[in-house]
């Protein structure tokens, strides 16, 4: 794969932190005040030097190879606002981070374009979205963490890593978090978690050093893509307790490399067992780390993305040829 010039909006910081480890020239549009999508490199991430900020009004002057959209606003509004007409015709990927909403089965994806490659982050998501005419592929997650990080588990309590649970309480499982917190030692970290007695927003570069000390990660989300917090925890060798929904049952084998169930009482029993038995926690965590290395490694992630880039460049070339033939 030759080195590409790629424009992408800053939408999901943790994902961008991993995607940007693939060595291409990445361009992040910025606007005054750093509104959503235009935050650039961001203050909490240590992105490589080849990830560059570009004022939104100068984007149209860039010599780009492809565009990555991630939200309906990117696709239906931002591209017409900041891209030149020629850039709007460049090969394009729509990276879909989310499960289908508002309906789990009948939701039509906002992109319906045979000349765009729709990348889903889980097989569950691709299965449940109605993707229309748009070609699709699945690139499962990876995470870019300090390889020296290792699970400690010396604090006999659990932790939940999630931003803004209060804004989407049923989806995030806020009620399940509070239910568990009332019965055993459990805290939270992320935006607005200080309102729940948690640690608040901890910069990404410091987050995992703090997380390693807790006995387990509890992921209470009912309906979301495979949470990056789960992959991060497994990567450092930390036991995960989570709901057996969306993609998680294909990742965690109950009692082997973590615990998954739709029975909250069964999950509470697993949390209590981990708190009571640090040796058990170490064993489960070691198995989780092995799973993460096999399935969510950074090398596999980079290969999958470069394959997608090659596919969409070929797709874009065929599309431009088709337009030329029509003109002729």
Brief descriptors of the model:
11 helices; 12 strands; 5-stranded parallel β-sheet; 328 residues
Explain the layout of strands and helices.
Elements: E1 5-8, H1 13-19, E2 25-30, E3 51-55, E4 66-69, H2 72-82, H3 85-88, E5 92-96, E6 116-120, H4 123-128, E7 136-138, E8 155-161, H5 169-172, H6 174-181, E9 186-189, H7 204-211, E10 214-219, H8 228-235, E11 240-243, E12 259-261, H9 264-276, H10 278-295, H11 298-327
Helix pairs in contact: 8-10, 9-10
Number of distinct beta strands: 12
Sheet with the most strands?
7 strands, parallel
Please report the distance between the alpha carbons of the first and last residues.
32 Å
* Strand percentage: 15-25%
User: How many helices in DSSP terms?
Assistant: 11
Strands ordered across the widest β-sheet? 3-2-1-4-5-6-7
Q: Can you give the mean pLDDT? A: 94
Can you walk through the features of this model?
The chain is α/β, with parallel strands linked by helices and 328 residues long. Helices cover 36% and strands 17% of the residues. It is built from eleven helices and twelve strands. The chain has helices at 13-19, 72-82, 85-88, 123-128, 169-172, 174-181, 204-211, 228-235, 264-276, 278-295, 298-327, and strands spanning 5-8, 25-30, 51-55, 66-69, 92-96, 116-120, 136-138, 155-161, 186-189, 214-219, 240-243, 259-261. Strands 3-2-1-4-5-6-7 form a seven-stranded parallel β-sheet. A five-stranded parallel β-sheet has the order 9-8-10-11-12, with helices on both faces. Strand 10 (214-219), helix 8 (228-235) and strand 11 form a beta-alpha-beta unit. Helix 8 crosses helix 10 and helix 9 (264-276) crosses helix 10. The two termini are 32 Å apart.
């Amino acid at each position: 794969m030759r080195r590409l010039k790629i424009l992408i909006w800053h939408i999901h910081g943790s994902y961008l932190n991993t995607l940007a480890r693939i060595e291409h020239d990445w361009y992040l549009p910025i606007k005054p005040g750093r509104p959503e999508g235009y935050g650039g490199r961001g203050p909490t991430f240590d992105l490589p030097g080849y990830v560059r900020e570009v004022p939104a009004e100068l984007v149209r002057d860039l010599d780009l190879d492809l565009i990555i959209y991630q939200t309906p606003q990117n696709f239906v509004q931002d591209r017409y606002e900041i891209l030149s007409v020629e850039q709007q015709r460049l090969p394009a990927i729509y990276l879909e981070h989310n499960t289908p909403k508002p309906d789990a089965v009948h939701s039509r994806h906002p992109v319906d374009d045979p000349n765009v490659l729709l990348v889903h982050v889980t097989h569950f998501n691709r299965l449940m979205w109605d993707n229309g005419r748009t070609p699709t592929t699945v690139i499962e997650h990876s995470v870019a963490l300090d390889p020296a990080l290792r699970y400690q588990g010396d604090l006999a309590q659990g932790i939940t890593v999630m931003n803004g649970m209060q804004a989407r309480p049923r989806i995030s499982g806020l009620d399940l978090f509070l239910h568990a917190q009332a019965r055993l030692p459990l805290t939270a970290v992320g935006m607005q978690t200080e309102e729940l007695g948690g640690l608040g927003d901890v910069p990404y570069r410091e987050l995992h050093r703090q997380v390693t000390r807790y006995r387990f990660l509890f992921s209470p989300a009912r309906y979301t893509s495979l949470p990056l917090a789960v992959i991060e925890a497994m990567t450092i060798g930390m036991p995960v307790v989570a709901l057996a929904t969306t993609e998680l049952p294909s990742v965690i084998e109950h009692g082997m490399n973590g615990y998954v169930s739709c029975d909250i009482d069964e999950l509470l029993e697993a949390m209590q067992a981990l708190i009571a038995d640090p040796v058990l926690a170490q064993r489960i965590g070691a198995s989780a780390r092995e799973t993460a290395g096999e399935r969510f490694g950074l090398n596999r992630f980079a290969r999958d993305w470069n394959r997608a880039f090659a596919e969409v460049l070929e797709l874009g070339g065929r599309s431009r040829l088709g337009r030329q033939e029509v003109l002729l």
